[in-house]
Amino acid sequence: MPSFYGVEIASALMMGTAGFPSPHALAQAVKASGAQIVTVSLRRESGTERAGQAFWSLVRDLGVRVLPNTAGCHTVQEAVTTARMARDVFETNWVKLEVIGDDDTLQPDVFGLVEAARRLCADAFEVFPYTTEDLVVADRLVEAGCRVLMPWGAPIGSARGLNNVFGLRALRARFPDVPLVIDAGIGVPSHAAQAMELGFDAVLVNTAIAQADDPALMASAFAKAVEAGLAARAAGPIEPRDFAVPSTPVPGQALLA
Predict the structure, then answer these.
(1) For the chain, is the Cβ count within 10 Å smaller at the N or the C terminus?
(2) Are 78 and 42 in contact (CB under 8 A)?
């Protein structure tokens, strides 16, 4: 089971909470997923008017651990300020750090991300950085104090799955002892299973569940896919081959005249 900053989590499926058709649909999906960590944007919880108090109460009633995020932040200062506000509101040092650099792809600004991570880690935050699969950026984030990395599979909400399997495999090999969570781009349960087969510790899914016709049923499907991927990884899958290999060996077979 994954462990983040010393906290062991029973489920390798993490869920986002945005875009659900209703609070009831969100609650049912979280329960069906078995997820123990959900991400929450500070923008749902107004610091002055408490406009999101009902939503926050719903999340607390689910009995899950909250991972506040800095979604929508485009600068280092904005991300750091939002993280500090989130710590006060949600009473946790955990933060999913996002510093967006491109509005079309929502690709992280990796330069700002590293600087924001450095500042937040120095301020006793436990940072979950949303990053790319770039090995150099990952090195810098770990040097800054991050003990978890959250590389994207594909652009947020694109449902394209794992666009760069080679890069993600290389990232896993470079950081064997750092928990890695695939964040963004997961579209169907098979994408989640593939991530777990590659050796990743968890996946974070939001849009693929929230926008499904039946969010709770899709959440349940993702839960099963994550378990299947974990089991396949543990079982030791065979490597792909360029040529056919007969499943039934020829030697020892009876010859019919």
Answers:
(1) C
(2) no
Q: With CA atoms as reference, report the closest residue to 178 among 226, 233, 129.
A: 129
- The Cα–Cα gap between 125 and 92 comes to 9
> What is the residue whose two structure tokens read 């899958």?
237
**pLDDT tens digit at each of 257 positions of the chain:** 789 999 999 999 999 998 899 989 999 999 999 999 999 987 644 444 444 567 777 888 888 999 999 998 999 999 999 999 999 988 999 999 999 998 888 899 999 999 999 999 999 999 999 999 999 999 999 999 999 999 999 999 898 999 999 999 999 999 999 999 999 999 999 999 999 999 999 999 999 999 999 999 999 999 999 999 999 999 998 888 888 887 776 666 666 65
Q: Rounded to the nearest 5°, which phi and psi values hold at 242? A: -85, -20
Residues that are catalytic: 96
State which amino acid sits at residue 63: G
Where does 90-223 show beta strands of DSSP type E? Answer: 94-97, 126-131, 150-151, 181-183, 202-205
